[in-house]
Amino acid sequence: MPMPSALPVLLLSLLILVPSAQGMQRGAVYDVRDAAEAQAMMETLQRTVFATDGSGERTVYILYSTGCGWSQRLFADTRGLGEGVQLRWIPVGTLAAGRVVSERDADAVGAAFAGGRGENGPDPAFSRRALTLNVGALRSLQAGLAALGHGSGRSFHFPTLVWATEEGLRVSSGAPGDLSVLLKSPVPGADNGNGEAGLEIAGSTFETKPSLRLERFDNRSDESASLKILPHDLAPVVYELEAGQSLPVTGVVGERWLELDLGNGRSVYMDDRNHAELALLDYSVKRKRGTLTAEGEPLRILSHPHAKAPELFTLDAGYQIESTGEVRVGDRRWVEVRAYRDGTPGYVAR
User: Fold this and answer.
1) Burial class for 232, CB neighbours closer than 10 Å (0-12, 13-18, 19+)
2) Which residues pair with 261 in a beta bridge?
3) Which of 46, 202, 248, 312 is deepest in the core (most CB within 10 A)?
């Protein structure tokens, strides 16, 4: 008997990835008229893994779940839609969605609704990354609309349709009552994305190394830190870590991505080469207790024995601090000190 798919559990956790994002009311239609915002949302959709349905210069993106009856009804109703429009089905939920992102055509979408195909497709790992990417795009779109004041509540209704208009971008939460609007409302030629970016993101394999020396990332900046759904430059941002907030670090991808834990196994990724380097520092501490005095000038107490490490605080000249050991990293010697009463260490270059 085949093993049950992990995709439903994965996607259920991802669908609650951004609890602060507002949902939209079913039947509501939103227009994004700000050119920069509309372009950003369109690029996010272009970078998903979708199934193409039909041909034509007018393009409509459809975020849907294969387990949603309203989505299935829209698929059936659009079989006689006519020529001139290409529907791009972006699956973000469970039943046979893995097969849809693998085959990426209308037949795969129809088979998924009929329940006649396996869930994972020929490459389960690719399917998981593709569906993770698609959920990230959904959350990015939802958060972007909420920031513009569109939407209320906390739910996202399937299907949601998005297309470019003369005025910007139109978002329909639920299928329009008159589907003929899809034949005339989208702007011909407004979307030249062919889906290759999404395939590139989902096709990029990665290995997560355990973090050796960084348990949490503390955002000490005055600005929020953008966290992505996958460790790729083109992946959508799904969470903003505000100044003063922190998250557990679970690993490092490559030489520049921190993997952070949002809870319940939900991972997000931050592009931060310096902290990634700190997380992978390999050193040992030679225990040696004593005191360290800031003689002549203040001493910078850093979080790690590394020149790029964040500064915890400055020890003013003339003051002393308890030292707990010595560390050598390359040719440089560091003194480990007891930075805080809870035992948190700090490091001073010597």
Assistant:
1) buried
2) 267
3) 202
Nearest to 11 by CA among 116, 139, 144: 139
Would you put residue 92 in left (φ > 0), alpha (ψ -120 to 50) or beta? alpha
Instruction: Quote the pTM value.
Output: 0.86
For 235, which DSSP code? S
- Which of 160, 179, 159, 181 is CA-nearest to residue 171? 160
pLDDT band, very low/low/confident/very high, at 110 (cuts 50, 70, 90):
very high
Q: Report the distance separating Cα 130 and Cα 122, nearest Å.
A: 13
Residue 77: both structure tokens together: 């109703």
pLDDT 10s digits, 273-322: 999 999 999 999 999 999 999 998 999 999 999 999 999 999 999 999 99
In whole angstroms, give the CA distance from residue 314 to residue 55: 64
Q: How many residues does the chain have?
A: 350
Cβ–Cβ < 8 Å for 234, 200:
yes
For residues 214-233, average pLDDT? 96
In order of start, what are the domains of the chain with their CATH numbers?
7-203 (3.40.30.10), 208-279 (2.30.30.40), 285-349 (2.30.30.40)
